[in-house]
From TrEMBL:
Span of the signal peptide: 1-24
Sequence ranges assigned to domain Multidrug resistance protein MdtA-like C-terminal permuted SH3 in this UniProt record: 269-326
Name listed for the protein in its UniProt record: RND family efflux transporter MFP subunit
Multidrug resistance protein MdtA-like barrel-sandwich hybrid domain ranges (all copies): 56-172
Species classification: Bacteria, Pseudomonadati, Pseudomonadota, Gammaproteobacteria, Cellvibrionales
Amino acid sequence: MRSTFSIALIIVLSVSLLSTKVIAQRPATAIVQPIVFVAKTERLELTGTIESASSVEIFPAVGDVVTNVYFQAGDAIEAGAPLLQLNNRREQVALELAEINLRDAQRRLDRLKTIHSQAAASQQELDAATLTRDLAANRLAQAQVELDEHTVIAPITGIAGLSDVRVGDRITPSTVITTLDDLDHLFVLIRVPEALTTTLSKGQTFNLTTWGDQTTSIVGTVTDLDSRVDPVTRTLKIRLAIDNVNGLLRPGMSLKADHLTQGQRYASIPEAALLWGASGAYLWTLDNESRAQRRNVEVVQRQTGIILVEGDLLPGEQLIVEGVQRLRSNQVITVVEQP
């Protein structure tokens, strides 16, 4: 009885091995394509702060009582336009006095020149009169500067910010009158991780969005890169120019930048070529003898229409992309053209 069972078991095993060998030797048809390596893409979310190309805080040169305010918050101000007037009565009187003194000194000098030409005045007297005239001209110029300092002038063209200064207030040189920002030319300052510094260049573009509107994309163009990496944060500062078309962007606002980077390169395969087994993902390649070889792989990233995998693969190897469902190792493959 035991002998009969042993003979039956041997026959079953022999048939099984023979069937496997026959399947392995039976040619299968498949479509192949060379393996191409593609860079893994990584999406990095960065945060930047909007800056104005020209932005200033306005301080008075001197302290005094405010007599006129010529702007309101949100006004478009041209460079050179008056913003605020301080009480300048003393300065006006000083200017008038300086003008009188200059005219008097000039008359004295002219008279001495006439007398000197007639040899009735010495050169020393003429030099002294000339010095007096020059000092009077200098005092007049100084009086004009002191008068001008009581009118606060816009140094740049921009939009006026809020102001707490009112007519009747006494202000000092440390009082902030308002701010001026050029909203037509804005930049975004972003700190980029050190690992990405070699991927950056002037003219490169970023897609930016505001935190309040994730659907509207703003294109930022790299205009400047810092000369060094911050040793504490390990980041590099870059500046992007943006267009404030609708006028809604303001300095100080934060923008989100989605940056795609190219990482390490991996084998790119069609989704249909990837199979799953008990040990994980695998695929089939074609060796030099036109036989199927199973390769275990790990999925790295899924991209549109393809999968990046890591394994014992080389660029240019023949990947079996169709006809993979019933393949066996070392099975002979008949390659057919793609329809």
